[in-house]
């Protein structure tokens, strides 16, 4: 008898818990379906922009005069106590120039990358290896077409230093890689882990919403049926 009463009590708690979490579950799934129904590029209005061919910047003769016609953009930052221009060309290349003199700065070496990580990353106790990757061969946890040095730390963290930019481009901890895998599973895209609007995801989101709504309706009908039986 005690077991039966306990089971009935658990059943009542289950019903009330179902009512409590049912609404947010419906909201989560419904809003999720809404957000994946359209590609994020359309949501941002990128399809409304009229594309125009990139226009090259014109710089003074002291700034790589033989390449200035191919320059796409320039930004100025401080590196090692001096003002440095980061130049990005139309073909995707990047280089650094001393802002004061206009002299081109050499690409980062393995030693440079190691020193930068030791200065700017907290808790660097041991560096296991420093590996260079060309722009078309970067590791999956970087996924940017840039030539980089991968500085692997003892705790599994990967720090990516741009060979031509002289900057830390990305930091990938072990947790980041697990998070990236979870994100790929969440959006059902393990190949690029960036596509948040594709038929498989939209289909499963729609089925989940339908199933959740049916469950809420059945709980409501079950409660009405119980009241009628008791009456």
Overview of the structural elements:
Strands 1-2-3-4 form a four-stranded antiparallel beta sheet, with no helix packed on it. A four-stranded antiparallel beta sheet has the order 5-6-7-8. It has helices spanning 2-36, 40-43, 110-120, 174-186, 199-230, and strands at residues 71-79, 82-89, 94-98, 104-105, 127-133, 148-153, 158-162, 168-172. The chain is 41% helix and 20% strand. The protein is of the alpha+beta class. Helix 1 (2-36) packs antiparallel against helix 5 (199-230). It folds into three domains: 2-37 and 197-230; 49-105, Nuclear Transport Factor 2, Chain: A (Roll), CATH 3.10.450; 107-195, no CATH class. A hairpin with a 4-residue loop joins strand 6 (148-153) and strand 7 (158-162). The relative contact order is 0.11. The model has no long low-confidence stretch (mean pLDDT 84).
Task: State the gist of this model.
By secondary structure, the chain is an alpha+beta fold. The chain has helices at residues 2-36, 40-43, 110-120, 174-186, 199-230; strands spanning 71-79, 82-89, 94-98, 104-105, 127-133, 148-153, 158-162, 168-172.
Secondary structure topology:
Elements: H1 2-36, H2 40-43, E1 71-79, E2 82-89, E3 94-98, E4 104-105, H3 110-120, E5 127-133, E6 148-153, E7 158-162, E8 168-172, H4 174-186, H5 199-230
Antiparallel strand pairs: 1-2, 2-3, 3-4, 5-6, 6-7, 7-8
Helix pairs in contact: 1-5
Low-confidence stretches are none
Q: How much strand?
A: 15-25%
**How would you classify the helix and strand content by structural class?**
alpha+beta
Main beta-sheet annotation: 4 strands, antiparallel
Look at the structure and give the mean pLDDT. 84
**End-to-end Cα distance:** 24 Å
Total helices: the number is 5
The counted number of beta strands is 8
Question: From the alpha-carbon coordinates, what is the Rg to the nearest angstrom?
Answer: 28 Å
How many structural units, i.e. domains? Answer: 3
The ordered H/E elements are HHEEEEHEEEEHH
Tell me the helix content. 40-55%
Morphology: elongated
> Looking across the biggest beta sheet, what order are the strands in?
1-2-3-4
């Amino acid at each position: 008898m005690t077991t039966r009463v306990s089971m009935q009590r658990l059943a009542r708690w289950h019903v009330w818990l179902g009512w409590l979490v049912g609404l947010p579950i419906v909201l989560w799934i419904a809003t999720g379906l809404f957000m994946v129904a359209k590609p994020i590029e359309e949501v941002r209005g990128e399809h409304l922009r009229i594309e125009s061919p990139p226009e090259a910047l014109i710089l003074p003769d002291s700034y790589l005069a033989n390449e200035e016609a191919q320059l796409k953009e320039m930004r100025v930052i401080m590196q090692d106590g001096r003002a440095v221009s980061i130049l990005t060309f139309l073909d995707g290349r990047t280089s650094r120039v001393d802002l004061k003199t206009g002299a081109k700065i050499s690409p980062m070496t393995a030693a440079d990358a190691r020193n930068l990580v030791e200065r700017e990353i907290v808790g660097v106790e041991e560096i296991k290896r420093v590996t260079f990757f060309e722009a078309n061969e970067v590791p999956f946890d970087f996924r940017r077409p840039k030539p980089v040095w991968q500085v692997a730390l003892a705790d599994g963290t990967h720090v990516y230093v741009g060979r031509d930019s002289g900057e830390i481009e990305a930091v990938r901890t072990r947790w980041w890689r697990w998070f990236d895998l979870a994100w790929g599973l969440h959006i059902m895209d393990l190949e690029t882990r960036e596509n948040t609007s594709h038929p498989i995801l939209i289909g499963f989101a729609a089925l989940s919403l339908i199933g959740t709504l049916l469950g809420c309706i059945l709980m409501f009908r079950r409660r009405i049926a119980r009241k009628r039986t008791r009456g």
